[in-house]
Write a structure and sequence with these properties.
mainly alpha, 7 helices, flat
């Protein structure tokens, strides 16, 4: 991969956009153009944005999508707890993480990683 292709990864683009957005929000808050007191409610969306960048990077062939999907799920789960979506709280939503962990295990069995597939194919050839 050339340096130019490496620099155009969606993960870096999303991370840069998140930093620019946060910087703009904080700057506007410091200049009294924006009241960012509500930011504490939506901070988990930063995790979702980072996960989206990692997922898009995986879609471009730079890595596996699992890490990005985990961060997206984690950010949405935290956001659901902070915002009490569907009545979820820290006390009653922990089983959602168990369901997610089980789902990941099942999906990995149906869609093995390319590295695991190659190892299986090599062992079958011998």
């Amino acid at each position: 991969m050339s340096d130019r292709e490496h620099d155009k990864r969606p993960e870096k683009l999303v991370a840069g956009l998140v930093l620019m957005t946060l910087g703009t929000i904080f700057l506007l808050g410091r200049l009294d153009f924006l009241d960012y007191d509500g930011l504490h409610t939506y901070w988990p969306m930063i995790i979702v944005a980072v996960g989206l960048g990692k997922f898009l990077s995986a879609a471009a062939g730079h890595r596996r999508p699992g890490e990005g999907l985990f961060l997206i799920f984690l950010g949405l789960w935290i956001q659901a707890n902070v915002s009490h979506w569907f009545g979820l709280t820290w006390h009653n939503s922990w089983p959602v993480m168990l369901v997610y962990a089980g789902l990941c295990m099942v999906v990995k069995e149906f869609f093995p990683s390319s590295e695991r597939r190659e190892n299986t194919e090599v062992s079958r050839d011998h």
